[in-house]
Amino acid sequence: METGPEDAEPGTLDPQSDPQSDPQSDPQSDPQSDPQSDPPQLGLRERKKQRTRIAIHEAAMTLFAERGYDHVTMAEIARAADVAPATVFTHYASKEDLVYELRHVANERLRVALRTRASEVGVLAAVKEWQQDMYEYYVQSPKQIDRSRTFSRLIRENPTLWSRSVGFMFERQNLLTELLVEQHPQADPFLLEVAAAQIAGAVQAAQVRYQGDLAAGMAKDEVLARATARSEQVYEQLARGLAEVL
């Protein structure tokens, strides 16, 4: 399953836009910024829908943190967000979608990172920089750290959520395959697909360790330092293995 700009959540990057011109492209740009904050170009109606979506998501994550994923219903989320149950389902088809609200942010940023990389920047270097940026993005403010810790605990405690996270690895693999084939038209498509699988698997493995550190309550600086050290190991190994392909 692949995602495109039409599937992106509110607040994600437009792959045709300049990532440097978007305040969300810099995790350090605003310590209080939210990945779902209102884009200024939206009209009044769209901004209202955006605020409703944010309220629903924040209510859900608060309830999940307090009571656990399995002990919260969509109706209870609606009450906590002060909206009708039908409104919740307008924005989110399931509780799983509420938990994985930010997956499109990550995938769209990956798409932008690979499509806008300078000619002298290799694929692996671009993916490595993207992953490091996402690590920082998830802990850019105290509110975001709390949200990321809750997310990390939820997926580690719930088999259904864990299974879906593995599914997202294949979603990212498909995205990487699409981008690699697009950028390396002379290469063997099958070998590019294999390369995409290796990169997606490595990203997932590093992400699981990062989430484990968050779930364990490690301080932000320690979480980032450990993630950076792992990135060096991961991408050095990938570079050796993919030297003849990328």
TrEMBL record:
The keyword Ribonucleoprotein does not apply. Residues 14-41 have a biased composition (Low complexity). It comes from the Bacteria. Residues 73-92 bind DNA. InterPro entries: Homeodomain-like_sf (IPR009057), HTH-type_TetR-like_transc_reg (IPR050109), HTH_TetR (IPR001647). Residues 1-50 are annotated as: Disordered. Pfam families: TetR_N. Residues 50-110 form the HTH tetR-type domain. Keywords: DNA-binding, Transcription, Transcription regulation. GO terms for molecular function: DNA-binding transcription factor activity; transcription cis-regulatory region binding. PROSITE patterns: HTH_TETR_2 (PS50977). This is Transcriptional regulator, TetR family.
